[in-house]
Amino acid sequence: MNPSFLPVVKTNSESLISSKIPHEGCPMGTVPIQRTQVDNLTDLNSISRLHLGSNLLNNYQPLTTASPGRHFAALTLLGLDTVHGARAGFSIYNPPVKMNQVSMSQIWIESGPPAERNSIQVGWAVHPRIYGDNRTRATAYWTADGSKKTGCYNTICPGFVQVHPQYHLGQAYGATSVIGGEQYVTQILVYRDKESGNWWLVIDNSIKVGYWPKELFTHMKGEASFVQYGGWTYNSPDGVSPPMGNGRFPNDDIKSSSFVSQMQFVDKSDLFVDIDEPSASSFADNTNCYNKKFWGHQGSALGECFTYGGPGGNCGI
């Protein structure tokens, strides 16, 4: 199965290198199945609840019990009515993360009121509780009710439909970026197919990994209304938050910071639209631990660019 169309993406890679996920080929007519450390429903529900209230627009309450253990540094698009998708390039890093911690960099595409929030979230993550290791892996999550009763990572439970025979969610990246050295980037596109209404995941501009059926959602059957880019972390029971991005605060050198580049959304005409400063609002809930910076347009290689990250530590509730 393939989508009815693929939005045309124009990129100039310049010195940015795409970090290809190693091939894990399957026989004709079959697809890869992810292996995880999640072995029971209780664990799955507990992990999914990390995403409760995970967007900043409706739940930005820094250092309160509204979002215990979670911290954000992200850029939100304001005033959107109809969104058919979003894309961006994320520099890939491998921050040190302990067993009960999470560090993830991602796109959020969402719609609906908080109690009924429909959400697709895609990016890279270091998540030992799911994967059983500290490698950086392609990771996605969806929910149809703000993570109250629905919500699932990758293909751990029914939801995302795997299509590609080689590339799949949960795979580790072949290489990660080095601060001050080689930069590896994953290009992520999530968009609504205009014929089927399904939400497709495309990586590196042309690899159609799979899709989320429109039937999963109540408020995203036709379009979404919210787009966000950036990072979030979850801390361990000892209260220490892990690094976000490359573990450093954003500085005056984009390529030595953890960055999101080529940020665009897909409008109601299925055309890519660049983000502009008046429509963007950035947040960091504890600037002692994480921070952010919106750079605007930075040439053809980076496009609209946002940097974020930090060392974590004792960041509060």
TrEMBL record:
Residues forming coiled coils: none
InterPro entries in the record: Glutamic_endopeptidase, Neprosin
Gene3D superfamilies: Outer-capsid protein sigma 3, large lobe
Pfam family, one: Neprosin
Domain Neprosin PEP catalytic: 65-316
Protein name (record): Neprosin PEP catalytic domain-containing protein
Organism: Dipteronia dyeriana
